[in-house]
Design goal:
By secondary structure, this protein is of the alpha+beta class. About 40% of the residues lie in helices and about 20% in strands.
């Protein structure tokens, strides 16, 4: 998923030689041209300053300026250039107004030696920076693979149901987190899941992967949506019991299970401590509040009550929006929470992809590009029955 107002991935990165296809982030153009700007500034200052002010000494810093954006070979070359250029400015009457005798003056010789020393340090600095960037590119590459496994592409069309998703990370460099979604076509209807894992880091990703695996398997076997939620709960409890000494037993997941039965024009909801879905119609936007919400997954054993299924009408043209609390907890610079229902109402009816794109841009604008939590959303729209039923396309996974 592209970020608004930013260049494409291909234009922001370059391939790492021998890096197995990983890409290094390319530095900004102004940073790449900074050594040239620095030399130009020295050339401008040199003629307008007195002979007693050897501005050419500023070239000692040129290797470090180059080390910010260029590799070690370039820095070594720019070091040699800086030493030669210092000599030219020191002993060229037409450029600096000095006689050739200044060329080997002890002050200028000291400048040559200092430039060589700084250039050597800059060369090592550039090599170290390149190694770190290559390591980061490898980590990103692995994270991208994990993202594809964890949040694999969902069908954009399941029968006469259009499905769209998006994922937005609060951290600009992050790839995966604890928010999750899934859509599975089954003989019982199209079953949807959205969830938010408590906590951050690898533990949250591991929990999300376990939950998605249990849902993808059980969605085909369990005829009842409440039984599906119970089976996923059992799987999470069993897995927590196999990890003694960790905080797995304390980590819980808020989730919404949804089941759309297109031919009956109904949607069933099981809410496990998650923000309620939105039902979007041409004339209204409303929350599908549950009559009896279940506790988050991995905490259900503490209550022991069966899951409750709420059923709602879902007519052609209706749209179901599932989302994580990262959306409703987004704040503007004044600290006001994002008014999701009011925003969606103000936009009017939008197709699924346009709705999520609009939501994506609006969240970034509302928060002034300062998100504090990951956000994920999934929308499913029931299309008119005359639309073809055999078209199923897949979209690439959304990412930050």
């Amino acid at each position: 998923m592209r970020w608004p107002g930013r260049t494409s991935e291909a234009s922001r990165r370059k391939l790492v030689p021998g890096g197995g296809g990983q890409a290094l982030p390319a530095p900004p153009a102004w940073m790449r041209w900074m050594p040239a700007f620095y030399v130009a500034a020295v050339l401008v200052l040199e003629p307008v300053t007195p002979v007693q002010w050897p501005v050419s000494f500023l070239l000692i810093a040129l290797p470090l300026v180059a080390a910010f954006a260029h590799g070690s070979a370039f820095v070594a070359g720019i070091t040699v250039f800086a030493i030669v250029f210092e000599g030219v400015l020191a002993g060229t009457p037409c450029c600096a107004g000095r006689s050739v005798g200044y060329l080997w003056d002890r002050h200028y010789v000291a400048a040559y030696l200092c430039t060589a020393l700084v250039g050597t340090l800059g060369t090592f600095l550039a090599a170290h920076r390149t190694r770190r960037e290559r390591t980061l590119a490898t980590v990103r590459f692995v994270a991208d693979i994990a993202q594809r496994v964890l949040l694999r592409p969902v069908p954009r069309r399941i029968g006469n149901i259009s499905v769209e998703t998006f994922y937005l990370s609060a951290a600009a460099e992050a790839r995966i987190g604890g928010d999750l979604y899934e859509a599975v076509p089954t003989t019982h209807g199209v079953r949807l899941l959205i969830g938010d894992v408590r906590g951050k880091g690898l533990g949250a990703v591991e929990t999300a992967a376990a939950l998605l695996g249990a849902f993808r398997e059980a969605a085909h076997d369990e005829p009842d949506l409440a039984a599906l939620a119970g089976r996923v709960e059992t799987s999470m409890d069993r897995r927590a019991a196999l990890l003694p000494g960790s905080d797995m037993g304390e980590r819980f997941v808020t989730a919404v299970f949804a089941e759309i039965v297109a031919h009956d024009h109904i949607v069933r909801i099981v809410n496990c401590g998650h923000p309620p879905p939105l039902l979007i119609r041409s004339d209204e936007v409303s929350e599908l509040e549950t009559s009896r919400s279940a506790p988050p997954l991995n905490l259900g054993v503490l209550v022991g009550e069966p899951y409750h299924v709420d059923e709602h009408a879902f007519r052609p043209g209706d749209q179901l929006l599932l989302y994580t609390d990262g959306i409703t907890e987004t704040r503007d610079p004044d600290g006001t929470f994002y008014p999701l229902i009011q925003r969606v109402r103000s936009w009017g009816p939008l197709p699924p992809r346009q709705l999520l794109d609009h939501l994506h841009h609006d969240l970034l604008a509302y928060s002034d590009n300062h998100l504090h939590d990951d956000t994920a959303a999934l929308t499913a729209c029931l299309l008119p029955d005359e639309r073809p039923h055999d078209e199923t396309r897949h979209s690439p996974p959304d990412r930050t």
